[in-house]
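Final paragraph of the annual report: two paired records, presented back to back.
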Amino acid sequence: MSVAIVVSGMYTGQDYIDLLRERIPHDDLYTATYTGIKMPFEPDFRMDEPVNTYHPLFDTNPYPDGEARGRRYILSKPLSKIPKRLKKLKEPSAHWHKQILLHAWACDQIEADVIVRARYETIVSSQIDWQEWIDKCHEEEMTYGFNTRSEGAEYNTYHHELQKCFKGRDSFYINDALIIHPKEALDWGYVNQLYKDKKLRGAEEGWYQVLSESQGHYHLSYHGGAYSAKDWELVKDAEGLHYISD
């Protein structure tokens, strides 16, 4: 079994690749971003940033769950009427499908059995046995998604412990701070065609669409284990999380 970490997305200056190298067992690590993005090192892959020809949230029908309908309802409001903590999502939501295109394109150019997808700002727990989850992925050919949160009573409030997402809304939603998936589950041709047909969804919905729905609805999401450093304000109160790099 070969394992590749693929770190991709828009580079914003936050970079925790060294933690990924240290904490996640792997054979290779690749980086990818868009053409023209300035970085302190040259990534392995650069892709021309996809052109927005549709909105991946407002121009696609919601899945039959509260999360999908709720996002569309809230973010379609004028900015002044959107809750403060969600305001920052309105403009970026138009670009949420691009990360999926970039990752699928990069994966199409490498050889591996299991892919660990991360963002440049992803911080993974030092206390999770990631080899166990890589083995599960390989043996069961299933995709696993992880994300730590400390807000809301429905969330697991621990960073170093995992809690399976049981709610129905998570059935159409893959937590995406860190995703472990079989390489064969992701088809670049399929992803690109969805984009051309203006059907590729964005963010957690999009990951579900291309990694689980395409495989007959086959994934599990967990609270805990990984988070984006840019969401530190939403995470800092999680148990076992006292420093940004823990």
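The closing record of the year follows.
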Amino acid sequence: MSTLSALTVLERNALEGTGGFYRPVSDGSRWPYHVPTIYTMNLRQNAPNYGWSSGDFWTTYYNYMANGNDQIRLPWYALAGPKYNGLDQTTQDGTSYKEVQYALMAVAGGEDMVLTPQNNSANGVFSMRTIFIRNTHPTTAKSITLWTQSSNYWSNGYEGSALVAIDPQSSLYSTATACSYTTMWQRTGGNSNYTDAASYTIQPGRTVMFILTTSAYFWTSGYSYKWMNINKFYNLQATFGDGWIQPDFRLHQTAMSMNDFDDNNYSGNVAHRIWNRAAELYGDR
């Protein structure tokens, strides 16, 4: 066994093996005991030293998923921040951050207050919550429902909110070559918070990435500016009510530590590389 393959086995065992941090379920016997999500905040045009708007490297982006380009760029914003090959640390300062947030009981996420040094509400703060859900059944497709609560801000037409399913169109991590994108719901006008529910069918042995993207309310106060953001999955006991439906810890870990030094191509359909990389790091399935 090579050093690389030995390391891969050790990493996989640490993640999922006996005594590992996660103990996955693949026989439909119970609901998951851990439900991890990746929460990302993007300050857009409100960062301390640099921000991006409709005329930047990433061109026009509509948070309500106006077209296919928005869907393709969404996983980059959720996992890597707005960047492309060559951006230095100065131009990325304060633009985005991400962290792991586990579901507490049947809820992942909630409300938070964001403080920014800028007050560009036309290209305002937005957040994303990413969850990887796997249908572990070997032969039967499963329909799941995701319940969401989200804030929605509408100022200049770039904001809004949406729930997007990103499907690798492959039951093996290694053979994914392109993803399909489905906007499960989207919202434009309206400055409030909303609850929604939408369903998606996951094919047997496949993992789908779901991203809830929301825009924060804009307030002002003194020398800093306040934004109220709500980004939440709830009713997770129903989402994972079928024991064959489980979080995918391999993809979660791969996405959380994601970098793409060799291909930061924001305009290409390259989200499938997350699945490919999970196969390299933690084993194919």
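The two ends are 20 Å apart (CA to CA). This concludes the annual technical report; the extension proposal builds directly on these records.
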